[in-house]
Automatic annotation (TrEMBL):
Protein name as it appears in the record: RING-type domain-containing protein
GO cellular component: membrane raft
Organism: Caenorhabditis nigoni
MF annotations from Gene Ontology: zinc ion binding
Pfam short name (any one): zf-RING_2
Taxonomic lineage: Eukaryota, Metazoa, Ecdysozoa, Nematoda, Chromadorea
Transmembrane segments: none
GO BP, one annotated term: innate immune response
Coiled-coil region list: 536-584
Name of the gene this protein is made from: Cnig_chr_II.g4371
Keyword check for Coiled coil: yes
Length: 672
C-alpha cells in the first residue's frame, strides 16, 4: 500500500508548490512572490523538477528569498512545513489536486493510524495509479482536476474533523480492489459509447465542457469552474479533428465510471470518510502532542471526546492544553475507550508546522508564534533598521501589548496562526532600510558580522548588540549546512543578535520564553532562570523521560507477546494439518502398494521390467502418536476400525485420556 502514500506525478503542480512557498515565507515578502506570472512556470508535471522550480521562485523574488538558503534548503523546509492533514485549506490550495503525502501516526498502543481527511488523498492516488496501469499513460490534467474537485467536495463534511482511523493495509487494499472492480463493472456498452459519440458531435465546446462539469453533483466555485473550462478546453481542442468526438466520448466514459466508483466506495465506508457517530464501534481518537519531553492534549479536543464542556473557548485565538500526566490521573475512569494518537510537533527552520484545531482553524505553539513574529519584525518589517533610538521606549510600550497573548505559564498552549494578530506599531520611519549584503564565497568572519550590523544601522538602536556577536557567530557556525557560512547564515546571525537585544528590554516576553522552554532557541542567550535550575529538577526530568520510555516499551513488549502467542497457535494448527496430510499420504502409499502387489500376482508386467518406487518399497508401520516404529509380534497394538491405522496400545490409552477421535482420520477410536 505504500505506493498509494506517494502523490502521482500528474497531480503535482507548480501552483501548489508556489502557494506552499508563499505561505512559508515572511508576510512582508508575499506581495512580491504572489504576482510571479504562472505563464513563466516550468512544464506542468512537477515530479523531479521541484528543486528547479524552487530555484525559479528564488530567482524571481528580487533577492527576498536569500535568507532561506539554496533551492534545496527551501524545498526541504517547505516539505516539513506543509506536512499536515488538510494543508490545502490553510494554504489556499483548494483548487489544486492533493499535493502532500499522508502521514501515518502511531498510537500509544503502537497501532498505526491515519487522519480521516488523508483517506481522500489515498483515493486520489488510487484512481490516478489505476488510470496509469490500465492505459499506460498518465491521467490528463482535465480528469486529474475533475477527480480532485469531486473528492474535495465530499471532504467538506470533514472540515472541522480531527479524527483518525486505524491504518490497516488489508482494509486499504480492499478499498483499492473495490474501486478496480466497480470501474470495470461500470464499462459502457458499445451501443452506449456510440450514442455518446453522436451526442457530443451535436454539442458546442461550452456545452461539452458543461456536461463534464455536471458529473460533480455539488456546486463548483467560480475558480474551479474556470480551471475545468481551461483544462477541458485544452484537452478537446488538442484532439485530432477526425478522432475528436470519439476521444471526448472515451474521456467522458472514464470520468463517469470513475466518479461513480468513488461515490460507491465512499458511501459504503462512511465511517472512514465522515465524523464519528455516537453509535460507532470505531474508537474515539485524541491526539497526544509530543514536544521534546512534553506530552499533552488540546483541552478542547480532549473534553469534547469525554463529553465535557470546555470553558472559555468562545474565542478561537488561544487553545489550552492538559498534560498526559493530568489526563491519566484526573480522568482515569473516562479514557478507557480513547485511542491516543501520538502527534509530534514538527518545525521547519523558519516556521512550525501548523496543527488543525477542532474549530477548523490552524494553530502553532505559542512559543513558535513568538519566534515567527520576531522574525517578521526583524527581517520582514526591519523595524530596528528604520526607527531612531528616541522611539525605542514607544516601541517597547507597543510590544508589551503582546503579553496579552504571550504570557508566562508552565503549560504549553496553542495560538491561532491563520489570523493576523500583529498589533499596530506606532513608530515606523519612512526611511528605507538597507538590505543585508551577500556573504563572500569563502564565508564571513566575526568581524564581517560586526561590520554588517553597523552597515544596517543596528548599532545605533542597540549599542550593546556587538556584545552578542561572538557567541551568536559560534552557534551559527555549528549549525551551518555547508562547508562555509553562506548568506542565509548571515541572516540568521543578524536575526539572533537582535533577538538577544529585544529580550533584554522586554522582561515579560523573556519570562514567557523561559516558561515555554524556548531559551535554547536564542543563540548565545544566557537565561538566569535556566542557570538556576537545580540538579534535582534536572534529575526529575530525566526520570520522567525514562518512565515514559519504559511505559512505551511495556506496551510494545505486550504487543510482541500477543503476536507470538497468535503465531504459536497458527504453528500448532499447521502442524496438525501437516500431520493429517502425512497420514493421508501414507494411507495412499499403502493402498498403492496393495494394488501393485495385486498386479504382480496377476503376472502383469510394467514397462517390461521390475517396477520399483518409493511408494512400493517396504513400508515401516509407525505409531502416529509417538512417531516410533511398531515391531510386528513384539508390541501390543490397537487398530482404528475406520482407517485401519495401528497404534501402540499404551500410546492409544494415553491419547484417549484427552481425546475421543482417531489422530489419523478423526473417527471414533474405541477404548480397550
Amino acid at each position: 500500500m505504500s505506493k498509494f502514500l506517494e502523490i502521482p506525478n500528474c497531480a503535482l503542480t507548480p501552483m501548489g508548490l508556489h502557494k506552499e512557498a508563499l505561505n512559508y515565507s515572511l508576510n512582508a515578502f508575499r506581495e512580491t512572490l504572489r504576482y510571479i506570472d504562472s505563464l513563466e512556470y516550468p512544464q506542468r508535471n512537477l515530479k523531479g523538477k521541484e528543486k528547479e522550480f524552487s530555484q525559479f521562485l528564488i530567482d524571481k523574488s528580487n533577492g527576498m528569498l536569500r535568507m532561506y538558503g539554496s533551492a534545496e534548503d527551501l524545498l526541504e523546509n517547505v516539505k516539513i512545513y506543509k506536512s499536515f492533514p488538510e494543508h490545502h485549506n490553510c494554504f489556499g490550495s483548494s483548487n489544486e489536486p492533493y499535493q502532500t503525502r499522508p502521514n501515518i501516526y502511531k498510537s500509544l498502543k503502537n497501532e498505526n493510524y491515519i487522519a480521516k481527511s488523508d483517506v481522500f488523498v489515498f483515493l486520489q492516488n488510487m484512481i490516478l495509479t489505476l488510470f496509469l496501469e490500465t492505459s499506460g499513460e498518465e491521467c490528463p490534467p482535465s480528469l486529474v482536476f475533475l477527480f480532485a474537485f469531486y473528492l474535495k467536495s465530499r471532504q467538506e463534511s470533514m472540515e472541522k474533523c480531527v479524527e483518525y482511523v486505524k491504518f490497516d493495509e488489508k482494509i486499504f487494499e480492499e478499498l483499492n480492489n473495490k474501486i478496480i472492480e466497480k470501474v470495470r463493472s461500470a464499462q459502457f456498452s458499445s451501443a452506449k459509447h456510440q450514442e455518446l459519440v453522436g451526442e457530443f458531435s451535436k454539442l458546442t465546446l461550452p456545452q461539452i465542457i458543461e456536461k463534464f462539469k455536471r458529473l460533480i453533483p455539488s456546486t463548483l466555485t467560480p475558480n474551479q469552474e474556470l480551471i475545468l473550462t481551461l483544462h477541458f478546453g485544452n484537452f478537446i481542442t488538442g484532439l485530432p479533428a477526425r478522432e475528436r468526438n470519439e476521444g471526448i466520448a472515451m474521456s467522458y466514459s472514464v470520468a463517469s465510471k470513475t466518479l461513480k466508483s468513488l461515490e460507491a466506495v465512499i458511501d459504503e465506508n462512511l465511517e472512514m470518510f465522515s465524523p464519528r457517530r455516537q453509535d460507532s464501534k470505531q474508537p474515539i481518537t485524541v491526539r497526544v502532542f509530543e514536544d521534546g519531553d512534553q506530552r499533552f492534549v488540546m483541552e478542547e479536543e480532549f473534553k469534547k471526546s469525554i463529553h465535557e464542556k470546555c470553558e472559555g473557548v468562545n474565542d478561537t485565538l488561544i487553545r489550552n492544553t492538559i498534560s498526559m500526566e493530568n489526563v491519566r490521573s484526573k480522568y482515569k475512569q473516562k479514557i478507557a475507550d480513547i485511542e491516543f494518537i501520538r502527534y509530534p510537533i514538527t518545525r521547519a527552520k523558519h516556521r512550525a508546522t501548523p496543527i488543525q484545531g477542532p474549530s477548523g482553524h490552524t494553530y502553532i505553539p505559542a512559543v513558535d508564534l513568538f519566534f515567527e513574529m520576531m522574525r517578521e519584525v526583524i527581517l520582514g518589517m526591519r523595524i530596528f533598521q528604520r526607527i531612531k533610538p528616541v522611539h525605542l521606549p514607544m516601541f517597547v510600550q507597543d510590544f508589551n501589548e503582546f503579553s496579552k497573548i504571550l504570557y508566562e505559564t508552565e503549560s504549553p498552549y496553542f495560538i491561532q496562526n491563520d489570523k493576523n494578530i500583529m498589533f499596530a506599531m506606532r513608530i515606523i520611519s519612512d526611511s528605507p532600510a538597507k538590505d543585508v549584503r551577500n556573504a563572500k564565497s569563502d564565508g564571513f568572519t566575526v568581524q564581517n558580522l560586526k561590520n554588517e550590523l553597523a552597515h544596517l544601522g543596528l548599532t545605533a538602536i542597540f549599542p550593546e548588540i556587538q556584545n552578542y556577536v561572538e557567541k551568536v557567530y559560534s552557534e551559527v557556525d555549528k549549525r551551518k549546512k555547508s562547508d562555509v557560512l553562506r548568506t542565509c547564515d548571515l541572516f540568521d546571525a543578524i536575526e539572533q543578535c537582535q533577538l538577544n537585544c529585544i529580550l533584554e528590554i522586554l522582561p515579560k516576553l523573556k519570562k514567557f520564553v523561559h516558561s515555554q522552554k524556548g531559551c535554547h532557541r536564542v543563540y548565545g542567550w544566557k537565561c538566569e532562570e535556566c542557570a538556576a535550575e537545580t540538579p534535582e529538577n534536572q534529575d526529575d526530568q530525566k526520570l520522567s523521560i525514562l518512565e515514559k520510555e519504559l511505559e512505551e516499551l511495556k506496551i510494545a513488549h505486550q504487543k510482541i507477546l500477543d503476536e507470538n502467542q497468535q503465531k504459536s497457535l497458527e504453528i500448532q494448527e499447521l502442524q496438525q494439518k501437516n500431520l493429517r496430510l502425512s497420514v493421508k499420504n501414507e494411507t495412499n502409499e499403502f493402498k498403492l502398494k496393495q494394488l501393485t502387489d495385486k498386479l504382480a500376482q496377476s503376472k502383469l508386467s510394467i514397462d517390461e521390467g521390475n517396477y520399483s518406487n518409493a511408494c512400493t518399497s517396504q513400508l515401516k508401520i509407525q505409531c502416529l502418536i509417538c512417531e516410533k516404529s511398531i515391531e510386528s509380534g513384539k508390541d501390543q497394538i490397537i487398530r482404528c476400525p475406520l482407517c485401519k491405522r495401528r497404534f501402540h496400545s499404551k500410546c492409544a490409552n494415553n491419547w484417549l485420556k484427552e481425546h475421543t477421535e482417531c489422530p489419523a482420520c478423526n473417527g471414533d477410536l474405541p477404548k480397550f
